Amino acid sequence: IILDTQNSRKRKPTSSGAANSTGTGNTVGHSPPSTPSTHTPGGGIPVASNVNIAQKSSMVCGADGTSGFASSSNQMDNLDSFVDFEDNVDSFLSNDDGDGRDIFAALKKGPSEQESLKSLSLSEVANNRASNNKVVCCHFSTDGKLLASAGHEKKVFLWNMDNFSMDTKPEEHTNFITDIRFRPNSTQLATSSSDGTVRLWNAAERNGALQNFLGHSSHVTSVDFHPKLTEILCSCDDNGEIRFWTVGQNAASRVSRVKQGGTGRVRFQPRIGKLLAVAAGNTVNIIDIDTDTSLHSQAKVHSGEVNCICWDETGEYLASASQDSVKVWSAASGQCIHELRSHGNQYQSCIFHPRYPKVLIVGGYQTVELWSVADNQRNVVPAHEGLIAALAHSPLTGSIASASHDRWVKLWK
Ligand SMILES: *[C@@H]1O[C@H](CO)[C@@H](O)[C@H](O)[C@H]1NC(C)=O
Ligand SMILES: *[C@@H]1O[C@H](CO)[C@@H](O)[C@H](O)[C@H]1NC(C)=O
């Protein structure tokens, strides 16, 4: 792969195959200084320091009476969400925004949702036990050709989906890696670590980290790239501090804070990137990045820590998983439109099915559950011998990956 020093987002996508975006390699030190595009309305990151996020309204979950906020208006919302439940589910299910993406074609053409779940399972395609310790995070590159995973071994593992060969990055983090995310359309990826740093790597090069982002004063628990302004990434730590970084720049461009600490998770809304979902402790917040205000937040969305948050492909729905339940939220209203209660498994991870947008895959101890939101049916699939700490999907290839404390990473279709 030939690397150049152009900033990839300025170039037209190439049709050449392998882990596209050959050009993102050497942006560090060569990338132009922060361009005006990072400040465009509808996705730009205004630069500010130490801004506390104003809490404008509350998330309300209709499906869980114990978690509602005390205010009477919220209780009203709570009632409404019960009344509107069928409508909400219907709109969730008719997830057709008319952009003709083939991802949804399978469902439209296929059998009814119920039948499809009955026949829907996961088959193991490949696996690796390259890590000698717990694996806690995994993510596919945009083109689906690489799966990156990491965890307690403190190293990045790269799994080539064409020939299943493994590669690793030098061990530079000095504590557990907590999250791993590819930059969109790129071979670059970021890791967050309990050592307090975020690092940027290039999977297409054999060398170590391209950049080390310093600033968090505690364990960094999650990281994510903006889906459009891909030079921007966001990380959070277990004190509820959120930092926005720009590739090639050392200092954080913005620092925000959510009220609660705990194991934080950050995930940008896909496609648009206007919203950032932040989980901290047992709260879930949906933050408007332009105004740095919290559109929806709820103090006790879950009875336990939120272990995972994930968006559906459209960016309209957010799912959150805690040990005893998974909830699906509408980003527009902040309402919980559906809930899956555990039958005893400890839910740790979740991801929307890459082919069936109304099916959520939930990872727990040893098993994954395929949950059809339509009819609340679930299929339980044995998958690992330990906790399934992370799930990933590739909408492009339809692949699903699971990473577990049992040290295995597995690939499913
Ligand atoms: C697998 O494919 C990649 C390119 O996609 C290549 O660089 C690598 O050498 C291959 N590994 C093996 C073991 O064939
Ligand atoms: C990534 O590539 C796809 C397909 O080429 C393109 O539609 C999309 O806009 C690209 N995304 C970014 C952030 O460059």
Automatic annotation (TrEMBL):
**CDD domains from the UniProt entry:** WD40
Biased-composition ranges, Low complexity, are 29-40
Q: Record's superkingdom?
A: Eukaryota
UniProt keyword Repeat present = yes
Which SUPFAM superfamilies would you find in this protein's record?
WD40 repeat-like
Alphabetic keyword roster: Repeat, WD repeat
Region of interest: Disordered? 1-49
Q: Where is the composition biased (Polar residues)?
A: 14-28
One Pfam match: WD40
| InterPro entries membership | LEUNIG-like, WD40/YVTN_repeat-like_dom_sf, WD40_PAC1, WD40_repeat_dom_sf, WD40_rpt
Which GO molecular function entries does the Swiss-Prot or TrEMBL record give? Answer: transcription corepressor activity
User: Which spans of this chain does UniProt mark as WD repeats?
Assistant: 128-169, 170-202, 213-255, 381-413
Under PANTHER family, the record lists: OS03G0860900 PROTEIN, TRANSCRIPTIONAL REGULATOR OF FILAMENTOUS GROWTH FLO8
Its recorded name reads Uncharacterized protein
* Gene source species: Aegilops tauschii subsp. strangulata
